DNA sequence: TATCCTTATGCTAAATTTGAGAATAAATAG
DNA sequence: CTATTTATTCTCAAATTTAGCATAAGGATA
């Protein structure tokens, strides 16, 4: 038998779907990474956050198959039209196509895929629309911010809840797997914390029914059994953290994980900084993204040795101490080093 | 004005497109990374390779919006149905949606997006269909295989061709940019070679009109001017390397780059190996993927220290020398180290 | 003004990791 | 038995990283 690809239409799909583009637009202001959110609307309004915690949504727009030559151009076009933001760095993240990503009416029976993008903009730029706001990233993922040490909510809320989830496993083998997975993703019982596993952590919490979206989705799905170990008990037993509409928090988790990985081998941080900056500014932005504090002198040495920046000779004296020199990104580094990123020196200052 | 997302349909697209899933299925046999290709068919047959060099296509299948709950399940379903292969490791690569990816008739006017996946299968497994074949990866990208040193075709064919491309730039600024880009992506004029920039290299060659696909696409597009610096001169001036249908070679380039990056921080190599293996087998697979030779003793030390494998006590004596011990992947490493990959020690044996 | 506080920047000693290869072990081919 | 081949263990020097110490240079304040 021949492969399907041998058949007439070249095998590239028969059923149709519509495509939405979602943008995770990130900026860092006041040492806080933020993302641009819009207020959820229509039948999504109030879907999340009924328990008092308000919810957000990512900006999105449809792909216009006629006008938009490429996905990325489509994205930058409607972002420009809607928010006046001119996206510099844009990177495709992932295409989300689970049928259940929108549990209720499936857009009139039509399947909706959404292509997620990560975009970085300079500090200070803001969209002027009323419905949009820059929200601190870590409001959605409080357990990801280790800049002031291990977040207390891990021991206080997450670990015990995950323990319950593990215990609730059907058979010993299942429980063993759950235990393993919980330990690895959240660095429990001596396992190390891996800053890049943002998505794994969110998905584990979802599976364990510990984030709002999980409960919302299971309540909405008329047929299916609810995910392991959760019932419709309001917000009781939920882990802290602002929820989002549909699967948007998952998309943001993907973005954060990707960005944390990327800063280490590509000079993307500079997309978030003004043209000139001090070493400390640079360090604060890296720390904000990585979610950890870094050793100042070693960070400096690493960046220096990497040839990532060059001094401008100018000094700024609003540092609260000795004036600091302003540096700028050294473009030439791109042709000198294979992986010009900011290696993260050991944590803590 | 409100964002579009405020409007009724939740903003997620209006126009419809169809979705194809493309799989880059990789195995390593005889120290050679190979990918599963199918013979191009229908109006694609003979589109590429008319100059004698035959062309290939990636296996693909449509997404069935009704049946397939998730994209990944859809992929594994039709791969299983068509090839009997049971995909273990599957990773989404990228969604390709350029309108011009298929220059001619656009599937009856309907836009086609394709979601590319990377799948790893164990050495030895092969699909039984006649129309499929495992082709060495580096036939498509001869310049990526540095295991026997810098590929001569870089100096012989690529560098001079890129020089011409650079010289053909319209203005000095353009030429400067082209020069920079050529140097960085191909490691010319003292710039280092970065094994992970596979896609950048392919795209540069495409832009410079040095791969078959570029010429094919520009000939097919009735309206547009041909890309800089190429004309319809048969295969003259093309860089060696087997071409593929549509944008499939671009997808494969994405896969190779991603895989090269990934082996360094996730233990994915083991997906390509039998359950037990010798150090040299492991090393050969890593070398095959990375496209470089590694220092044997240091590689061993690195893998050992990383706790990636554990000895089985069994020996195999078909090594041609002293018998080697068989090792297996140590699952526990996942909970011990944040980034359990095979760091690449310095090149050369 | 002298002192203290703060941040910036330079420097170093110890510990680790890496790069290159010598040395030894254990098989097979003649 | 000897040469050859691959496996495995060690060593040593060079490079990098970690964790601080020390000095510089502002502003604030007694």
Account of the 3D structure:
- The structure is a homodimer of 349-residue chains.
- Helices cover 31% and strands 18% of the residues of chain A.
- By secondary structure, the first copy, chain A, is of the alpha+beta class.
- In chain A, strands 1, 2, 3, 4, 5 and 6 form a 6-stranded mixed beta sheet that branches. In chain A, strands 7-9-8 form a 3-stranded antiparallel beta sheet.
- In chain A, a hairpin with a 7-residue loop joins strand 8 and strand 9 (324-329).
- The interface between A and B is large, with 74 and 74 residues.
- Strand 1 (16-29) of chain A pairs antiparallel with strand 1 of chain B.
- The structure holds a DNA duplex (30 and 30 nucleotides).
Summarize the structure.
Two copies of one chain form a homodimer. Helix content of chain A is 31%, strand content 18%.
Which characteristics define this entry?
globular; 349 residues; Nucleoside Triphosphate Pyrophosphohydrolase; three-stranded antiparallel β-sheet; 9 strands; DNA-binding; alpha+beta; homodimer
CATH class of the largest domain in chain A: Alpha Beta
CATH topology of the largest domain in chain A: Nucleoside Triphosphate Pyrophosphohydrolase
List low-confidence stretches of chain A: 1-13, 48-52, 222-232
User: Regarding quaternary structure, how should these chains be classified?
Assistant: homodimer
Tell me about the biggest sheet of chain A?
A: 6 strands, mixed
The span between the termini of chain A is: 64 Å
The name of the CATH architecture of the largest domain in chain A is Alpha-Beta Complex
The SS-based structural class of chain A is: alpha+beta
Query: How many whole angstroms does the radius of gyration of chain A measure?
Result: 22 Å
Overall helicity of chain A: 25-40%
Shape assignment of chain A? globular
On the 0 to 100 scale, the average pLDDT of chain A is: 85
Strand content of chain A: 15-25%
Q: Give the tally of structural domains of chain A.
A: 3
Q: What's the number of extended β-strand segments of chain A?
A: 9
The CATH superfamily of the largest domain in chain A is known as Nucleoside Triphosphate Pyrophosphohydrolase
